[in-house]
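Fresh eyes needed here. I'd like your take on this protein's tokenised backbone:
***
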Amino acid sequence: MSYIKKIAMILVAAALLIFLSGIFVIYLEVRSTCKAAMEKFGGSCQSALIAVLEDPSVAPKEKNDAIWALGQMADPTSLPALEKIWSGKVPEGREPLDEVVSQYEIEKAMRWMKQGNITSWMYGGLK
């Protein structure tokens, strides 16, 4: 095998390892967000995340984390909960995630619930 082919194989293997590591980190974040919601509200991951959205005493950052996790899972049964808090418009500029419930994150999560995303397959055990 030529030197160039060996380097190419190493680069492909490294890229694959980085990609899989990223997917694993996303999974761990979703699992951690679910665990925190379940400790606070009980029930399944999905129902606890929805409870986070419905509780007026929960801080915007925690709600945004729940929205993101629901979007990662991309389960269409969560769509009504997001539609309740969706204003219908994403504002101009970047929303401060620790200050407001992000309409951008809601829109993105709803899009994933309708169209799917590439990582939703790995959350079957969390729902």
Q: What stands out?
A: The chain has one domain: 31-123. Residues 57 and 66 are 14 Å apart (CA to CA).
